[in-house]
Amino acid sequence: MANKAATCQEIKEKVCEDRISVLPDALLVQILLLLPIKEAVATSILSKPWRCIWTLMPKLVCKDTKHTNSKSVWWFFEQSLQLHKSPILEHLEVKLGSRCPADVDVGKLILKAVERNIRLLDFNLKWSAKPISLPKTLYTCKTLKKLILSNKILIELPFEVFLPSLIKLELFNVAYKDEGSLIRLLSSCPVLKTLIVVREKNDNVIKFSVKVPSLNSLVYINNNDDDGVCGCGCSSSSSSGSLIIDSPQLKYLRVNDFSEDGCSIESMSPNLTMARVDVGSPPNENFLTYLSSVKFLHMTWIDETEVFCSCVNYSQLIECMLRPCRAEYWVESVMLLLDNSPNLKVLMIDTKGIGESDDLRRWSYVPECLSSQLEILEWKKYGGTRDEKQLLEYILASSKCLKRAGISMRYSKDCNDKMKKKLRKELKSMPRASVSSELLFPAKFKWRSSVAQHCLFDLF
């Protein structure tokens, strides 16, 4: 009986044994990284060995929500950073909402991060106060590889800066003291590969100049409402502006700008392979010339569509996504582009919101890409208007190498099941030059270059 009692005691002790605490500190840190910071810090009360584990975490994330007290969140995070002991802070993410008190010392937090050899800094400030300047030390950090600044941040750089390791820079709705501050920031990044810019209102920059020799990827989204007042409260001298690109190594370009601002390219590599251009009016002639090297093109337009489609020889283009926003002349524009794209293999058309024009069209020629190259056609939001039907019939009847045509329908509100069935039957009966081609419902193909885009952006 004594032996049996001893055995039961041993089993009980094994069941109660704390096996997690005996794990190596490095593994415990990885476990804590899966928890919110408050819960990770709370583990310090578990036992003496746990007291300092959280201070070795290489990643700290602080986010306040509408359900939290911003002041207490800030105090908690500031105290946590003071106790932090990791020699290298890989990742610091701070997102403070509109209720954040205006007297918090943001600069102090940045300085502590720089002292700990910060690699990735994501700072999002949405308080109700004016935009603030960040400490000079941030702009001379030798270890910083990725920097994300959002909202109430003022880029004010009257001094020379140097960020020798910065690979990726993201600027979301920030304000600039002047154009010189923007130029100094970008020129301080000798190895910058990816730049993402979102402009929400007039930010005190008229000529947005991107002169970065090492740049591979550029995303520029301009939501400027041209109200004449910059994000830092200054009055701009003009409501018009422009984007100027001087980056000879650029491979991926996205421009989303439906304002009246212009866009020009001063120097760009002919190796530009991917471009997404969503604009209200066409950029200058030099910009269009450099689009001639792209292999993947995503285009949304409103006005002067024939400029995009007739003035550029897309000799390298193999995949194209077209999204016209107005009914007038959109079919002619598509035909012009097809005629200038002899190697096009994948064509995607999205006609959401397109109405019907007054002109009937007849084409007496067949673009080279239709007779010898086009393999996949995808049509989204096909509504069966006369224009859409004419173009679809023409492409199907002319594409000798077509393997698949996918169509996603856009039905009117009064379209019943019987009408839907009739419309599909009409599509299936359209003559096809390629007898082996399939007609599929709905369209499933995605813009293939978006995968490559993510690969370019995933640099850190």
From TrEMBL:
<dbReference type="InterPro" id="IPR055411">
    <property type="entry name" value="LRR_FXL15/At3g58940/PEG3-like"/>
</dbReference>
<dbReference type="InterPro" id="IPR032675">
    <property type="entry name" value="LRR_dom_sf"/>
</dbReference>
<dbReference type="InterPro" id="IPR001810">
    <property type="entry name" value="F-box_dom"/>
</dbReference>
<feature type="domain" description="FBD">
    <location>
        <begin position="368"/>
        <end position="442"/>
    </location>
</feature>
<dbReference type="InterPro" id="IPR036047">
    <property type="entry name" value="F-box-like_dom_sf"/>
</dbReference>
<dbReference type="Pfam" id="PF00646">
    <property type="entry name" value="F-box"/>
</dbReference>
<dbReference type="InterPro" id="IPR050232">
    <property type="entry name" value="FBL13/AtMIF1-like"/>
</dbReference>
<dbReference type="Pfam" id="PF24758">
    <property type="entry name" value="LRR_At5g56370"/>
</dbReference>
<protein>
    <recommendedName>
        <fullName>FBD domain-containing protein</fullName>
    </recommendedName>
</protein>
<dbReference type="Pfam" id="PF08387">
    <property type="entry name" value="FBD"/>
</dbReference>
<dbReference type="InterPro" id="IPR006566">
    <property type="entry name" value="FBD"/>
</dbReference>
